[in-house]
# Entry
Amino acid sequence: MTEQKATNITWHKPLVTREEREKKNRYKGVVIWITGLPSSGKSTLAHEVERLLFERGCNSYVLDGDNIRHGLNKDLGFSPEDRNENIRRIGEVAHLFADAGVIAFTAFISPYREDRDRARSLNEPGRFIEVFCKCSPGECEQRDPKGLWAKARKGELKEFTGISAPYEDPPEPEITVETDKYNLEECAGQIMRYLEEKGIIPAAAVK
Amino acid sequence: MTEQKATNITWHKPLVTREEREKKNRYKGVVIWITGLPSSGKSTLAHEVERLLFERGCNSYVLDGDNIRHGLNKDLGFSPEDRNENIRRIGEVAHLFADAGVIAFTAFISPYREDRDRARSLNEPGRFIEVFCKCSPGECEQRDPKGLWAKARKGELKEFTGISAPYEDPPEPEITVETDKYNLEECAGQIMRYLEEKGIIPAAAVK
# Structure
């Protein structure tokens, strides 16, 4: 655990409460934590659901390698300690977004249970939705849109999750999407239905 | 500068563009960077403007010691290196919020020009609004709501900005609010007018 260093900090109540925000917005700020092997479809899925939410009038935002590794976490590599700190910071930022009333997606491999559970612990019950992007390693390796599995096979990438680094399946994710059995539209729909059923977003208007 | 460590990252276009978000929201995501001495009124001002924006239908969020020092940056203390990293991370997170279409306030002393300029550089021109919370050290010390100036005078706080650590005034802030001359309502109104004039938020409806 990271130790609390600063001690001369006090808390005060913000003038706009979360309840007020959500009443105005008509949807809730939550963290949708998508985890899975490289090339299992995490980022694509997140952006697809973001699009559907946008059309439903809900503001969401996707945190993924694109906007985190080049910015906030550009000082971090892929050692176990750096991966740990990477996920710790992402968990904190996602929590801030949810607190701000945004539906925050994270799309990172996040291979360790302990790291994901720590991210979960920052949020109230029901505010952290773990989505397991389940896809066989064989299928992930075949897709390989960024050529990472191929590089790892050649030994050019060390500590590559699925080949030379472990991935710990989530034991009890809120949602499991099987991206090697269903298409993108079906998997995205599964997440949308969950959000509706839990009252996180309003139900779609009947056409 | 922090070096870029991760190299096997590619960029891809998000499916919801910033333009789309802002067209729907009818306001723009920006960073409002409030800087000034301890007890100059940064956080109070940020929350006051947040309230006014909320009533105008604009979503904003305040990053300050309360939600950053206990979370994302709880591994950092007050050494020059840690202060530097503190502000670097805050700059990155504020930029993410603005990218998500939120009006992001930061309310940190942020005493060094270089650190503030680096935070600015992450954003497109016009998307970073530096607000100098100008207040005489004497007035700040008299207010001292958290008793920090008093502690620093007793030597209980080291590297305290205004006493034992420097504060570099912003040479060209977008806005200067003189919190020792005008009241909270007036200072908040000054920021609201700026945001209206620059087309960042819609003008208030005539009553």
In short: The longest helix of chain B spans residues 80-99. Chain B touches chain A through 57 residues (CB under 8 Å). The mean pLDDT of chain B is 91.
